[in-house]
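Appendix C: a fully annotated inverse folding record. The material below is reproduced so that readers can follow the format used throughout the book. The structure is listed first as tokens, followed by the designed sequence.
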């Protein structure tokens, strides 16, 4: 009897075909909502999760579930304690989205540097004002401060330094190993906020990082500096960010993520001329989605075939031996 793999949301052809070719039965779910998943999950052995939140209630209703494959690196939308309680392994796909997210971080910096939202808003009504009066700057020679230096952070550093001649400094207490000479590591987290023209966030949402960027950090930043967040909205204390922007403590922000996803339509950040927002599109490219779908399918097959598992989320690695 074939193992059943639930897809609450569609995945791209590469992963879909891999599952079929390796003998899995695909259950195309009704949707990513909790009630939808509850109606689909009862007999499923595995699940590929994109944006759906996997709650304890879902895991309680899934007696056959053995493995969840997360379509990307982040896994904060999965209740890991409930997964542990039900002996369900959670695997992710680190690295598959790195190029796409890094490119987007650079895009946000470019957008902010040219004050593009304001230019777009004004130029059809007042061409001359938009061209000459709206402030614009280059990235060349500016300082980029990275909070977090994983796969994405390193790629952003490379693109910024090698492509735009930016000075790159980084803070990451967990980083080990050698670094290229264009990255200057600092042990002083505050330095990132004090000296950077662009502060770019590249850390996961954990107990330590949630709301870790707030009033204090914004007070350290230059009033010409921009915040770039392509990581998780919960890392930033959003009311503090709104206040910092309204009081012109910082120049603006490029935000791929907000506290609420989907966002609340009355969020003041959406209306600010110096803030660019998007619906968490960092990994939503064809290339990244193809890599992620295939990685998820392979992770599931590795699990059921008893092969070594290389992408188990850190919080659950202590019971890999019970799965292999």
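Designed amino acids, in order:
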């Amino acid at each position: 009897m074939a193992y059943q793999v639930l897809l609450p949301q569609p995945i791209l052809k590469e992963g879909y075909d891999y599952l079929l070719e390796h003998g899995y039965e695909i259950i195309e779910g009704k949707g990513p909502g909790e009630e939808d998943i509850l109606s689909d999950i009862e007999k499923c052995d595995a699940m590929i999760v994109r944006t759906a939140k996997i709650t304890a209630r879902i895991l309680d209703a899934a007696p056959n579930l053995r493995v969840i494959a997360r379509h990307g690196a982040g896994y904060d939308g999965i209740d890991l304690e409930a997964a542990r309680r039900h002996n369900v392994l959670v695997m992710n796909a680190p690295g598959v989205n790195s190029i796409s997210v890094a490119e987007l971080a650079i895009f946000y910096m470019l957008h902010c540097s040219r004050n593009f939202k304001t230019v777009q808003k004004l130029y059809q009504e007042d061409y001359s004002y938009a061209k000459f009066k709206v402030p614009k700057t280059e990235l060349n020679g500016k300082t980029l401060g990275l909070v977090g230096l994983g796969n994405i952070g390193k790629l952003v550093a490379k693109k910024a330094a090698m492509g735009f001649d930016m000075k790159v400094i980084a803070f990451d207490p967990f980083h080990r190993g050698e670094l290229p000479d264009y990255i200057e590591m600092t042990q002083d987290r505050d330095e990132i906020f004090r000296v950077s023209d662009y502060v770019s966030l590249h850390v996961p949402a954990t107990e330590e990082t949630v709301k870790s960027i707030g009033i204090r950090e914004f007070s350290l930043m230059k009033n010409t500096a921009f915040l770039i967040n392509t990581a998780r909205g919960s890392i930033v204390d959003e009311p503090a960010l709104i206040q910092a922007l309204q009081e012109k403590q910082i120049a603006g922000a490029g935000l791929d993520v907000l506290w609420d996803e989907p966002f609340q339509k009355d969020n003041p950040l959406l209306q600010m001329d110096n803030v660019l927002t998007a619906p968490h599109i960092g990994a939503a490219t064809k290339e990244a989605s193809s890599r992620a779908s295939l990685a998820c399918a392979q992770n599931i097959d590795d699990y059921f075939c008893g092969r070594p598992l290389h992408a188990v989320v850190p919080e659950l690695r202590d019971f890999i031996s019970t799965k292999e």
